[in-house]
Amino acid sequence: MSSSRGAGPAPSPGSAAGTSTPGTADQARPTPPTWLPVAAVGVTLVLWASAFVAIRHLGEDFSAGALSLGRLLVGALCLAVVALGRGVPRLRAAQWRSVLVIGVLWFGVYNVALNEGEQRVDAGTAAMLIQVSPVLIALLAALVLGERFTAWLGLGLALAFAGVGLIALASEGAGGRDVLGVLLCLLAAVVYAVSVIVQKPLMASLAAVHVTWLACTVGAVVCLPFAGQLLTQAQAAPGSSIAWLVYLGVFPTAVAFTTYAYALTHMDASRLGVTTYLVPPITIVLGLLFLGEAPPPVAYLGGLLCLVGVAVARRKPRTLATEPPAPR
After folding, report:
1. What is the DSSP letter of 22?
2. What's 315's DSSP letter?
3. Rounded to two decimals, what is the model's pTM?
4. Average pLDDT of span 79-105
5. Which residue ranges have biased composition labelled Low complexity (predicted)?
6. Helix (H/G/I), strand (E/B), else coil: 295
7. Helices (H), 59-150
8. Residue 160, SS3?
9. Ramachandran area for residue 146 (φ above 0: left; ψ -120 to 50: alpha; else beta)
10. Measured distance CA(283)–CA(288) in Å, rounded
């Protein structure tokens, strides 16, 4: 697909207006079945993997900004139907600031950077580059959310960025790919990681669909300067490409960002971030099936290093039985 959120008690997402009496949000929020957050993550991963392939395919008909605006407009409209059906959320000033940051970064900058990056690198390579984000999420979670920082995290960060370096070298020597595309995908990974950390506190008090809808709408507003390009290119695009653009807005945007936000409500940010290591292999398979393309051979080694870095970063240090648990 997501600043610190507003602190303090907030509304239960199940309430009509998205608000609740201070101090009652935790009691009002029922504990879901164990499998439900896992299922939400699974839906998110498959849909996001398909998005890399769709973006690469649509690069022939839409520029990066026009594709971003079209996707976000469709996503915001779909989300509005569901979100407003649950009432109008009431946000404090600090929460609005967080939503604005998420909308500008995750929905605005992320989409434009990724779309432009995928005009320069294949879908599988882009998916592997985005996978440095779990390490960045773990690092930011330690610095901002108070989750534990370990030596393993530092080693994982080094391995992940060594992998990025290999992917960049592989891309520079491959036809139709360049280092600028790698850097744009890396920028998308950075703003994604920041956005997850910003979103995490919001999920303690607001419904996932409200946060996603508001942020998506902000992203669409940010991308409005591309409206002229979108109109011109949509008129010239074949019907199949329009259908793919609508798919991007409905499923990888409206559905997937909401299921991710829901999972974030019930999982640690760092634990949830690491699950996205499944996106690259899914994307590579889909890229082979639908686009007939795959990353250059050396890029696989770089992608493997990124994934090893993620695994190492999430390794928990051994502690003595008498050692008190680390504060969280």
Report:
1. T
2. P
3. 0.75
4. 93
5. 1-25
6. coil
7. 64-85, 93-102, 110-117, 123-130, 133-140
8. helix
9. left
10. 9
Q: What distance lies between CA 320 and its chain's CA centroid?
A: 36
Per-residue model confidence (pLDDT) at position 247: 96
CA gap 260, 208 in Å, rounded: 8
User: Token pair 């996106």 is at which residue?
Assistant: 279
pLDDT at position 160:
78
How far, in Å, CA of 181 to CA of 186, rounded? 9
Residue 152 binned pLDDT confidence (cut-offs 50, 70, 90): confident
CB 197 within 8 A of CB 141: yes
In terms of Cβ atoms closer than 10 Å to its own Cβ (0-12, 13-18, 19+), residue 99 is buried
Cα–Cα distance measured from residue 13 to residue 15, given in angstroms and rounded to the nearest whole number: 6
CB atoms inside a 10 Å sphere around CB 92: 14
On the 0-12 / 13-18 / 19+ scale of CB atoms within 10 A, 100 is middle
Q: How far apart are CA 262 and CA 90, in angstroms?
A: 19
Distance CA 275, CA 49 (A): 13
What mean pLDDT is predicted for residues 274-280? Answer: 73
